Amino acid sequence: IIAAKSPDPDQSLLYSEILLKKSLELDSTMGVYRAYLQQGNAYETKGDLSESLNSYFKAVDQITTIGNKKELAKTYIAIAGVYAGMDNRMNLIEYYSNAIDILKNVDQTYYAISMENLGDVYLTWQQPDSALLLFARSGPIFEELGEQSYLAYNKGNKGLAYAQKGQYKKAESFIGEAIKIHEEVGDYRAVSVYLTGMSDIYAANNDWDSAFNSSLRALKMAQNYGLKAEISLIYLKLSELFEKTGYYSASLKYYRNHIAYRDSVQNISEVQEMANNELARKQIEVDLLNQRRKTQRIIVFATAIALFLILLLAISLYRRNIYIKRTNEVIEKEKERSEKLLLNILPEKTANELKEFGKVKANKFESVSVLFTDFISFTAHSERTDPELLVNSISVYFGAFDDIIEKYGLEKIKTIGDSYMCAGGLPEPLENHAVKMVRAAFEFLAFVEEMKLKRKDGEPSFEMRVGINTGPVVAGVVGHDKFSYDIWGDTVNVAARMEQMSVAGKINISESTYELIREEFECELRGEFEVRNRGKMKMYFVKGKLKKSRPTVLSGSESDRYSN
Asked: Which helix (H) or strand (E) covers residue 529, if one does?
């Protein structure tokens, strides 16, 4: 009980070890289960996700032996929460589904918790409407059962969802109620999350002092209690705030801190190891049994085994010599492969600078064209399409996009879920980068249409929108061990808005891009649209190669539709 109620994860780990020792002495399976479960909770709070999974899987073994369905479902929810932190969506959905199936007719409290947690995942995927549907189902259950702590999470999560939808007054009201309750019970992890949410709301209203104060308060609290995952997210938020207020050096510093903490939480090799943990434990049991049998045979047939071992040793030495030779060859090949891999991650000039100096200086580029794409209704496809088929389909599209931008000398920046981002004009200057970017965009759309015609039964069919903006950006390498070439600045944010305000099969561009391509392409002036944090901006649809007709303004109804 002490371990479960302690807000300090280090104290919780200490008490859990005491509980585990006592439970083993008393041969209490339920006690061992609770000790492992609390260890998993504490490790997750500290951001050590691999150790958290290890403890949760041990808890599953114990509770399965007892046959307690309610506790098994609770542990599945905890495991799903860890996979959410790892962004492992397939395993996350699997464990939440298992928990919900069990709890629906077993325990209403944890049935509501499972829906609340799944809604929280939808928030991280930027799907507030889906999240609010789940919160609307779980909230009344918490209220009916008198679960005030869970109801506080429900209020805070609703606030974050309304913030994503731009309904800031509702968001501030819900989050304020949640913070007050969580501070009273000492749930500092939740307080840090919701303080960060308040920072978003203040920033959206241009109250920068309050936005910084809220984020810094959240950072101090997360650091005091060693909450790595929250520290990572707060550093990212501070980086965005400094960038929006024009302090680019500070923005880069906090972004690097974010990457360092994110990498410490999401250690890829450990994640893979824990994903295969159950199979590994079974294999260890088999190996131990085989070893016992071998030991018995050695005792009975000592002389024969000794001769066999001598022969085996000779063969082993011979094979080892061959192995060493082959290993050296593999090392050389892997060295070449590493060089190629680095060039796949970073531009050649940047990669050479990194190898020579051990770091890369951030550079500002005065004129860069940035493109974003997005597949419309991708979430709906993901809910009714086999995950493997969906991932393979997206890979086909992105692979084709890679080939297209390589042809035009453009630079791929990254993919974000079903969104593709690239830029022209860096890390080396590129003549007519805006024109080349538009040409590439038309080829993107042509490939999407081609795939519709080739689609087989059961395969998803996508429609895509494109947005392009041109202007200054800051570019550099972030991360210490897992390098990533990235760009940031207001130009990038506006490019994302161009994509969001485009329509299926269209290329939506800003006025700055239009001025650079107007001699090459025929464009249609859509009008002025309200863009958050920028005011009204002119936008154009690119219709094709230049014709004699001049751009025309769309009807006021479409302009009004986008400005709301």
From this structure: strand 521-531
If DSSP codes are grouped into helix, strand and coil, which group holds residue 534? coil
> Each residue of 46-101: pLDDT tens digit?
888 999 999 999 999 999 999 899 899 989 999 998 998 888 888 988 898 899 88
The conformation of residue 127, written as its DSSP 8-state character, comes to -
Among residues 241, 240, 192, 190, the alpha carbon closest in space to that of 212 is found at 241
Q: How confident is the model over 332-348, as pLDDT tens digits?
A: 666 566 555 555 556 66
Residue 207 belongs to domain with CATH number: 1.25.40.10
Spatial separation of the C-alpha atoms in residues 199 and 413, rounded to whole Å: 28
Per-residue pLDDT tens for 429-457? 999 999 999 999 999 999 999 998 887 77
**Secondary structure (3-state) at 414:** strand
**Closest by alpha carbon to 78, among 103, 97, 96, 64?**
96
Are 94 and 131 in contact, with CB atoms under 8 Å apart? no
Structural domains of the chain, count: 3
Cα gap 154→142, rounded to integer Å: 9
Torsion of CA 487, 491, 494, 498, to 10 degrees: -90
For 105, the 3-state DSSP assignment is: coil
Lowest mean pLDDT among 1-5, 279-283, 446-450: 279-283
Residues 6+ apart with CB under 8 A from 367: 425, 433, 470, 471, 472
In a domain, 78, yes or no: no
Judge if 384 and 472 occupy the same domain: yes
Torsion, Cα of 267, 273, 275, 279 (10° steps): -170
- Whole-angstrom distance, CA of residue 98 vs CA of residue 534: 45
Q: How many residues does the chain have?
A: 564
Q: What domain range is 442 assigned to?
A: 358-563
- Which 3 state secondary structure label does DSSP give 425? coil
Neighbours of 149 (CB within 10 A): 14
Q: What DSSP character marks residue 8?
A: -
Q: Is residue 448 part of a domain?
A: yes
Copy the structure tokens of residue 48.
């050590």
Contact 546, 521 (CB under 8 A): yes
What is the Cα–Cα distance from 362 to 510, expressed in whole angstroms? Answer: 26
Give the H or E element holding residue 367: strand 363-375
SS3 of 56-70: HHHHHHHHHHHCCHH
